[in-house]
Structures are given as C-alpha cells and as structure tokens.
Amino acid sequence: MKANSSATVIPAEAILPVQERQAASGLWWGLLGVAAFSFTVPFTKVAVGGLSPLFIASGRAVVAAVLAAFALALTRQRLPRGVQWARLAVVAGGVVVGFPFLTSFALTTAPAGHSAVVIALLPAVTAMTAVLRGRERPPRPFWVMSGVGAAAAIGFASVQSGGIGHLQWADLLLFGAVAACAIGYAEGGLLARELGAWQTISWALVLVSPLMAVLAILSAAQQPLSATPAQWAAFAYLGVVSMFLGFFAWYRGLAIGPMARVSQVQLVQPVMTIGWASLLLGEKLDWTTIAGGVAVVLCAGAAVRARSDSARAGGS
What we know:
This protein is mainly α and 316 residues long. The chain is globular, with a radius of gyration of 21 Å. It has 13 helices and no strands. The protein starts with 11 loop residues before the first helix and ends with a helix.
C-alpha cells in the first residue's frame, strides 16, 4: 500500500469476532421468539375449551392485524413492492392461516403433549426448507446433530404422551401445520431481510385481515362466544404474542441468520411446551421429560457448535 493511500485493510481476525457476535445475536433473538411460541399449544388447548377452533384461528389473526396496522401506520412504513406481495401471501398462508387453523382444530381432540410430538419436527423441516429456498449449505455434522436432536425431541415427547400410535385426523392436521409453518418461516426469514423483521409479519397479517375478519364474524354467528376469563386470556395471548410480538423476535433472528442454524433453536420448543402444559394443564411430568429435555438441548447446542466451527474455519 502507498503511503498516501486512504484504503484500510481490516485483518480477518478483526472481522470474524463481528460475524460471531452477529450470529450469536441471531440465536438470542430466535430463542426469544421460541420462548414466546412455546406457550401457543397449551394456550390454544385452554382456549378451545370455550371458543370454537375457527374463531380462535381467525380471531387471533384479526387482533394481531389491528396491532400490525397501527404499527405500520405510526411508523409510516413503505408499501411492499411487486413480487413481495406474493411472497407475503406465502408467509401469511403458512403462519397466519395454515398453522393456527390446523393446530386449533387438531387440539380439540389431541392433548398438548401429543401435539408437541409432531410439532417437534418443525426445526428439521424448517431447516430443509431454508436450504431449498435460501440456498444455505450447512456442513454434514450440523445435519447429523440436527437429525439426532429432532429424533430425541420426538422420542421423549412420544414416551411422555404415550406414543403416537396409529395416525388419526388430528395427527394429519398437525403434520400439515408443520409443513405450512416451515414454509412460512423460511420465506418470512428471507423477506425480513428486505422489509424488516416486524414489518414482514405485519404486512402478512394486514394482507389476509379481510378474510380473517369474515371468518371470525361467521364463526361468532354460528357459535355464541362464551368463555371463562382464563380462556379469553389465553385467546388474547395467542393474538398479541403468538401471532404478533413473537414474530418480531423470530423473524429478526432468521434475518440475521444463518437461517438453517437459527431454526435449530426450535428444538428446545417441545421441551418448553410440555413444561408449560404440565404447569398450566396438569399434564404428567416425569423423569422421561427431564431426560428428553436435556438430550434435546445438548443436541441443539452441538448442531449450533458445528455450524459455528464451520464458519470460523471458513474465515480463517
């Protein structure tokens, strides 16, 4: 370099810690979102005790859409453009329509613990969707540990809930919910890099709000709204946190990425969900849940470490 040159060479050793801090930030935001979502299944189970599944799924979206519209208007966010609207429709179809509707109907018969068995597949499906959609290529140890973690999550949840057994209609609904949510997560994570984390879920909610409002009115007309204060409180959480605020953190984590890595934080969600189900619903909590929870967390940590080691090696 010449003496009068204004260019500055930044050593790779100085860049790498910044990348590591950014990746850690993505994981923490993802974990915050997962913590918010971990209450969704137990609170949905509480809400369906007094409200119809159709009203819960559509009504929670209406509540969240009102909040989203206010947030977008107050901050004067620019409108999405062109193909972004189509991508927002994909996000809305997965996380605003697909997952809430399918899980709400499934939980009319399936217990929260049993539902966690199937929903435990979500991290692995999200990671696969992220690879296909986002062109991420995590190393082989990452996939191995992710697969082991998913198997551990499914195994401990199956033992805790007495096993999946023969597939019932509720199981098929839950499998569909997992597929829909994974697509919405992956597309939303990519779109959040363009529109912003909370803006993505907000525009998705606003996009489908007319349909959700019509369905909520129809469901209320067909079945009078009669619920206990606890059931209304659960419904409020689903609308404000599960459908809105939780996505602020979750999509921010996915946007920071790498998406396939952050998605593995979801492996701890079934552990948390069954813990809340035990506390809130009185479902049985025994040593298998504790052992399974430890296994899931360790595998998730190993998967994250494998991805971190790969990134560090690539930057050296």
